[in-house]
Amino acid sequence: MDDMFDVIVVGAGTGGIPTAIFAGQRGANVLLIEADDRVGGTLHWSSGQMTAAGTKLQKRLGIEDHPDWHWDDCLRISKGEVHPVLTRIAIDHAADSFDWLCDNGLDLVPFAPVAGWGHEPHRVRRYAWGVNGGTSVLEVMQPLLDEQIGRGTVTLSLQTKMTKLLTENGAVVGVEVQARDGGKAEVFGKNVVLATGGYAANPALWKELTPNYPLRSYCNPYSRGEGIIAARSVGARVDGGDRFLCSTGGILQNPNDPLSARGGLILNPHFRQPWEIFVNHKGERFMREDHPSVDNREHALLKQKNVEMWVVFDEGIRQNAPNFHSEIEREHMKTLFNNHPSYFAADTLDELAKRAGVDAAGLKKTVEEFNQGVEAKKDKLGRESLPRPINRGPYYAIKTVGYAVLSPGGLDIDADFRVLDTKSKPIPNLYATGEVLGKARLSGATYLSGMSVLPAITFGRLLGQTRLKWGDNRAAAE
């Protein structure tokens, strides 16, 4: 490795790769380090969904859109809780980033763009993703990264972990790294960009930063918050950890392993109307299962004990309802009951409640009231999907948990993507992009469709194109 790099990028994922590409295209000598044995980071787990207003795709389809409309939608859906400066930057440059991906071969799903998919809808069709989810984005960016590696502008070091940031007179001057053989080295750079992802794979850090909600996650196992930890050690402010919102329908494969959550249950009424009911520890329904707002359903689950619920149904529903497990066939799913720690079955509701760990009296009363609502065609919670009662044994319950795919808290940055300290002053030579900023930075305590992947790419592009400076002099401490 060279004694001094123009740019050191820590994390070869959604934000780190474009940072390295565009800095390399400007002629920088870039070191890109990655703890995994492959590039891509969270893109290997992500659905790759993106939103952008005024794209070439929209124009080609005759869809009128404008960044101001996108901004209004973000404010409406987040209830105004987004970071105003950073969100506006992400929105205003989103179309350029999306068009760049498309111009370089992004293979979109044929029905894109749409107004909404899995989260609150936007006013116009601006929501799109590739046929292979997040890996579709990686398939576009990796050849461009390889080109810079081939030119010699980018040096890629895999299975290399940053262990700390190096400082001199208050400025970041490089990183200490640890290779796969355990050997450590100090590497110096004029700019250090943290693109290390979140902390949803680090139970200890989750407990510290997001203590009010239990960790159950499905994420990149390298999302251990190492960038947050390193930046905090040199004075960076970390916030937003309390602004968590769960995804629904997670199933723990191992109740003792918070990182074993997996999705698969189709609980969104936009994709499948519910036949089942959802109950909490008391055996009580706590949400309208077919409520049209996913934000409403997610926040309802968030308020429940341990952020968990049980999906309850009977043999009649099991046989006749559309299959609601996207990854398991109906007949195979039956074999999981009483053989999987989250699947329960019994001949009576009393026994089901005992096995599942919910209040039996509450469950029996809830099922009775629900059945009365089905017969009267009027549900007390306003549910409209009432195809049949729950009255034919055996009875079933699947324990599901609210789970994290992204972590809410992270580093704060300014409009030039410089990491800020606890007094809101930039830490010289230290920058950040991607989930290391925290999901809540650009979404608030909700999920804004497509406001994770594309902003990470956008900030990375802008860092490489204009924000990072290199030359003989390091940035002076401010």
Describe the structure.
- The chain is of the alpha/beta class and 478 residues long.
- It folds into two domains: 4-200 and 407-467, FAD/NAD(P)-binding domain; 247-403, Flavocytochrome C3, Chain A, domain 1, CATH 3.90.700.
- 30% of the residues lie in helices and 18% in strands.
- The chain contains 15 helices and 20 strands.
- The chain has helices spanning 16-25, 56-60, 67-78, 84-92, 94-103, 134-151, 203-209, 226-233, 294-302, 315-320, 330-334, 349-356, 360-376, 440-443, 453-467, and strands spanning 4-5, 7-10, 30-33, 50-51, 127-128, 154-157, 161-168, 171-178, 184-189, 192-194, 238-239, 247-252, 261-262, 277-279, 308-314, 343-346, 395-403, 410-411, 418-420, 426-432.
- The protein has a six-stranded mixed sheet.
- β12 (247-252) and β13 form a beta hairpin.
- α12 crosses α13 (360-376).
- 51% of the residues are buried.
- Mean pLDDT is 95; it is low at 472-478.
Summary tags:
elongated; FAD/NAD(P)-binding domain; 2 domains; six-stranded mixed sheet; alpha/beta; single chain; six-stranded antiparallel sheet; Flavocytochrome C3, Chain A, domain 1; 478 residues
What's the average pLDDT? 95
**Gross geometry:** elongated
Summing up helix and strand content along with how strands pair, one would put the structural category as alpha/beta
Helix content: 25-40%
The strand order across the widest sheet is: 6-3-2-10-20-19
- The CATH superfamily of the largest domain appears as FAD/NAD(P)-binding domain
Beta-strand content: 15-25%
The strand count comes to: 20
CATH top level of the largest domain is Alpha Beta
Number of domains: 2
Structure annotation, total helices: 15
The low-pLDDT segments are 472-478
- Main beta-sheet strand count, sense and barrel state: 6 strands, mixed
